[in-house]
Structures
1.
Amino acid sequence: MKMNSLEDLLKEQLQDLYSAEQQIIKALPKMAEAATSSELRRAFEEHLKETEDQKRRLEELFEEFELDSGKKCVGMEGLIKEGQELMKEKGIDANVLDAGLIAAAQKVEHYEIASYGTLRTFAHELGYDDAASVLDEILQEEAKTNEKLTRLAESGINKKAS
Ligand code: FE
Ligand code: FE
């Protein structure tokens, strides 16, 4: 793929995000299963549904921009690997695991927030207002998920882990 304009960068980064969302869809069920807190498990399950819909909306943008899914997001691969290492810890305290799962999930959400925020601004700059509003809509969902995770951590999970 050529990389000579903001439009090229927008397209390349959309492919990166699509790969990120696909990886998250694979990881979230495992994180939900590992969670001890039922509230945390529910939060992961709800975000899985939301993420599947985000993937669908990205596919619509792929059609608009005539993109294919040939890219792997190595940033997300690394973040997910860190979460997996935590889940493999032998004999980890259940509450510590929950606190760690929230930390891992919030790193994922922050990656997404940075990415969707940047791409929304690129799309807006390029005059793709419909794409910009789709990206902004997803950005708001990621931000809400991040806030929900903060609330769960601060409303008891961190205390139980300490
Ligand atoms: Fe997402
Ligand atoms: Fe997300």
2.
Amino acid sequence: MSTDRATRKGLLLVNTGNGKGKSTAALGILVRAAGYKFSIGMFQFIKSAETRYGEHIAAEELGIDIVPLGDGFTWLSDNIEADRALAEKGWQRVQAVIESEQFDILILDELTYCITYGWLDETMVLDVLRNRPPWMHVVVTGRNASPALIELADLVTEMHLVKHPYREKGIPAQPGIEL
Ligand code: ATP
Ligand code: MG
């Protein structure tokens, strides 16, 4: 089995839908790929710089950086310009790491919101993803993936909400399951 860039077909994966599991499925790929010593970068839109969940601690032990793109500012603020600026700054970082070719697998967690809320220009985002190196796998997560993103993607999975403990019973988020 080859893990060489020369023989690899880079895929664009999209995990979307209103059920839980989109980001955890992306983390599953991170763990699986780490086993082959792939170089992996995970960038989290929507998350703040203070975010430190189980995955951040575990990834650190694997030598993988999970980067919340919050920078101390708040996402989903009342000020759309502030949200847009944060998204653009995050996207510049993503573009830079695509150009630097440092990662075999790039995970863009909750990127769909930046498109849904109009913080990032969809055509521009899709052009960057389309023109990435042909060996680079990219995983995009978030609800409401747009038709154009779905069209561009190679693998799309929609998580469908059947039951959620908070919705059914008011059970709060559990460490190890949701954070
Ligand atoms: P996870 O990060 O657990 O894989 P996700 O990426 O699929 O979840 P998001 O849409 O990013 O889901 O939501 C983040 C959090 O919101 C998750 O911890 C999830 O359990 C929680 N959540 C999802 N659906 C509901 C719901 N109907 N009621 C309450 N909380 C929910
Ligand atoms: Mg998520």
